[in-house]
Amino acid sequence: MHVGNNAIHLAIADNDEIVLRGLAAIISQQLPQVRVRWVAHSGHEAIERALDPLNRAGILLLDMSLEDMPGTEACRRIRSRNGTLPILAMTAFSLNQYAATVADAGAQGIVGKNDFNGLCHAITTVAAGGVLPAMASGTRNVLFESAQYAHKRLRVADGPNLTLLTERERQVVELYAQANKPAVIALRLKITPGSVKTHLDRAQKRLGLSSRAELVDLWWRCQV
């Protein structure tokens, strides 16, 4: 959380300019410690600003009804690349309609746009690193995760997939990730050390990774 002198640096994403101004005014009035860091009028703008270190905020208030993309998609794209920015979803519709997809997308809770008391309470809770209480959605009891935990989960789900590798490449990567030297891998798989290097190079290139360390890190994350 980005806090100075107990201030909460708030970012708001909503495609309705009138709603944006109204929310900023009401929240600032109810929560004097809130400073509006930036606002965004679309999902793409929200993603760009949220991932820019120069626009660092303490919490993002994200509308679910954006014009250019679903709010859940914007949330997921931000969370898969940022594990520190708390995200609080908001909607003018039924919370149960979005609760499950919002949690899956990595938000720390969802609140009604017109519930100003609930909105302010949720902002202080989520900005402080907390999550909102579990919600019922159909037959599912929806639990919200911390930003850090959701980020780790989505990095694996949305990142490079080991299923893109050939069977031999997966075998080589697995043994390499387990700290086996190329000569040992070659002996176990009955191939040459040169072939081990070739398979590692191809796997790294196929997954769009820039180093062996990233390859090893990905393999271990996929085991979680």
TrEMBL record:
InterPro entries named among the record's database cross-references: CheY-like_superfamily (IPR011006), NreC/VraR/RcsB-like_REC (IPR058245), Sig_transdc_resp-reg_C-effctor (IPR016032), Sig_transdc_resp-reg_receiver (IPR001789), Tscrpt_reg_LuxR_C (IPR000792), WalR-like (IPR039420), WH-like_DNA-bd_sf (IPR036388)
GO molecular function, one term: DNA binding
Domain (Response regulatory) ranges: 9-128
SUPFAM superfamilies to which the protein is assigned, alphabetical: C-terminal effector domain of the bipartite response regulators, CheY-like
Modified residues (4-aspartylphosphate): 63
GO terms of biological process kind: phosphorelay signal transduction system; regulation of DNA-templated transcription
Domain HTH luxR-type: 158-223
Assigned keywords, A-Z: DNA-binding, Phosphoprotein, Transcription, Transcription regulation
CDD domains registered for this protein in UniProt: LuxR_C_like, REC_NarL-like
Pfam family, one: Response_reg
Highest taxon, organism lineage: Bacteria
Protein name: Two component transcriptional regulator, LuxR family
